[in-house]
Amino acid sequence: MPIYPLALLIASVGVALAERARPWRPEQKALRRWLWSDLLHLVFNGHFLGLLIAGTAALYVLPPLDAWLMEQGLLAPLYRNAAASWPLWVQIPVALVVVDFVQWCVHNALHRVPWLWSWHKVHHSVVDGEMDWIVSFRFQWTEVVLYKAVLYLPLMWFGFAGEALLFHAVFGTIIGHLNHANLHITWGPLRYVLNGPAMHIWHHDYDAEGAGKNFGIIFSTWDWLFGTAYMPDHPPRKLGYPGVEEVPHDFFGQTVWQLGSWVPALGRHHLAMGVLGVAALAGAFLLQRPPTPETPMLGEQAAASQPAARRGAGVEHAASPEEATANLARFGAEAKAAGLRHPEWSVSAREVAAALGSPRLVLLDVRPADRVEAGRIPSAQPIDRGDYSHGQPAPGVSRPVADLEAMLRARGVRADSVVVVYGDGGPEPYRLWW
Asked: How many whole angstroms separate alpha carbon 100 and alpha carbon 220?
């Protein structure tokens, strides 16, 4: 089981049990009418939405964006990976502070910019009797897209390790659950550092008294520093906002609820909104799925690590063999920019295209013979699995080193060669490389 979903489950169960043990508002029901909707928000926003955004961005957003940045000479300056060499114990607190401050700025904008506020209304549809741990994930997908888009550049610049970002996600989930929990936690002196339920509940104040306050996600420090902190010693009179009735109660309707403001007749029928929500989610799922290779290698399934197609990315070609050889030095730059741990072992299609014609470049095509015959990269040498492995003592065992060296020499590989192995989605490139 992936680490984050497991951490999400543990945090959710832990805070829910704490609410039952010592509720701040004892009269509030645990099993309320629309709890199922918030449970769907928890599952979808806590896991599946991230996959949908990542898949769609990898296929349709990042390739043309990275290509444009490269054309403008901005790719390398932006992908600084400034934090990549820092020890993890330094990356974790810096990532917490950087990401949380960006999120505080976005949250502030969600309340101050009218069209952004219409996205944020779903989260503020929490009314009396609903403020508990699980509503921390009640928000519309458009908010997440905005947060991810704004975070893209700072995360590019710093290049934090995945472990640092995972720590932020887990710790942020715990604090988010607590912020909305039916618990009376003030944190004492730590209130000036950490957000908490006694402070965050005023962010959901129906009246103007606490409106426009307490934008902190994890840290309350930003609100105290910039004068947006508000923390009386009593809870607000009422939760929600004037006009909260306009937002549908169910998860599916909330997914597309802005359509109701654009088409008032549709907005009056929450069931129809729900049906549209189901259709929109199904469309998003289909949109983010990468294209399946036409012919899986030797009948095997496409590798799970098959790279996403980089649509819309332009390529450049060298004007001379000397220029092509010079371009070999750029191999791995895009892999480094993408945050791969060992970028020296990866190369992009654009980088290969710019090096075609170099006498040092050797391309090895490990696709099936019919695919190779249908068309291959210029100068690529076809290789079959039988050229580098055999069936004794078990299928797929590598041939002896001397045989492999002879096979590579026969295809033009020399001591100073740069060898690129490529396939069409199956495991063969990794077999030969290994």
From this structure: 10
